[in-house]
Predict the structure.
Amino acid sequence: QVQLVESGGGLVQAGGSLGLSCAASGRTFSTDRMGWYRQAPGKEHELVVSISPSGEGTSYADSVKGRFTISRDITRNTVYLQMNRLKFEDTAMYYCNTVPPYAGAWGRGTQVTVSS
């Protein structure tokens, strides 16, 4: 059973930082491009950042470029997201998944709330 478990979310003031983790189990994701998605209330999932299987290629949405950093540890089957200089509009539920997303792998997500 494929499972992605996100953790590390919380409540933070604008300008603060949070680090998210996504632990994968059930199969290896070492050959998949992985991404962090976020979903605000009433909106669709938005891909904000992704990383290549090797970890050398990354892609960022303009809204988070320069503030978010994605990384991965193949040996731990884990993907990370470091979020700095958080803004109110970053408030959302954050999920990790493959890119494009694997429908059967959506986890419960981790809530990030940024107070202004």
The chain has a mean pLDDT of 95. The longest strand covers residues 18-25. Residues 95 and 109 are 5 Å apart (CA to CA).
